[in-house]
Design brief:
Distance between the termini: 107 Å
Structural class: alpha+beta
Mean pLDDT: 74
Radius of gyration: 30 Å
Strand content: 5-15%
Shape: rod-shaped
Number of strands: 5
Low-confidence stretches: 51-60
């Protein structure tokens, strides 16, 4: 019987250490709604809010939201779906110095926007009829 040669057992390969895991990416931040940073205050019926003093500089620098007449209104009023609830925001829009910037930034017709923008009430990205004081709807 032939003799079988056996090899000595080979040593185990050295343990490799894995490189450290990369740091976790920062948590994604959601972009706040346009009027989210505004303080929540109760809507006040009556006169239109006062026009901001620094309209020109704010609008030119890109901070048109600070110059918006609706800046002090609560989000529930600005994003209202019913004309009665949106009335304070619609009155503010009537004298707002930055309506064009608002419509340009919000682009309500290109989204499913609900609320007041550019002096109109929008529902699902379409202008909604708002009854006038005489009771007939106006667009």
């Amino acid at each position: 019987m032939p003799l079988a040669l056996s090899r000595p057992p080979s040593p185990a390969p050295p343990a490799r250490s894995c490189p450290p895991a990369p740091p976790a990416p920062p948590a994604p931040t959601a972009r706040p709604p346009l009027h989210a940073a505004r303080p929540a205050t109760a809507p006040t019926p009556g006169p239109v809010p006062a026009r901001p003093a620094a309209v020109g500089a704010a609008a030119v620098d890109g901070y048109w939201q600070a110059a918006a007449a609706c800046a002090g209104l609560p989000p529930a009023v600005v994003f209202a779906r019913k004309p009665k609830d949106a009335a304070p925001a619609l009155r503010a829009c009537a004298v707002c110095p930055v309506r064009r910037q608002c419509v340009s930034a919000v682009a309500p017709a290109e989204s499913l926007f609900d609320g007041v923008c550019g002096g109109r009430l929008w529902r699902n990205g379409r202008p909604a009829a708002v009854p006038s004081s005489s009771g007939s709807p106006r667009d």
